[in-house]
Amino acid sequence: MKNDGRTLTRETLEAMRFMALERMAEGESPAAVSASFGMHRTWAYKVRLKVRGRGQGKRALQLRRAPGRRRKLTDAQGRQVFRWVNGKNPRQYGFDFGLWTRQIVRELIAQRLGVSLSLASVGALLARVGLTAQKPLQRAYQRDPDAIERWQRETYPAILDSIFLQASNCCLYS
Length: 174
What we know:
The chain is mainly α.
């Protein structure tokens, strides 16, 4: 079975196309060129056809960006999601939680646009429109250093003791 080029890199295939075109311009038959590259017989004919068609000449053989899969949301829809999220509260849209999460944005997109996205896709969308996870710029004004110190000194050790006590009770063998 002849090679169809899927195992070769895109750069290699581009170089092969240009070399094949040069050899055919020198008079070598397309079938012989294809055979010398180890490709299917029709490969060189397709290369020659690309150059002749659509008036692009040799530019038709140049490497192009692979198209890949299209996004589920258009750029306009992404901007709409930005407007929904930026400066707004999820409670305004009927959600129970007051902070934006990827899950809440995902549900909002499903409700409003009828498009189902994965959490990773929602995160990529938010990053693309300029929204990233934020940390507070300053500490909470209600912060009470005395209460924190008291909690660390008294409450936290009591919690640890109760955890160890429960762990020791559940791990006893009879």
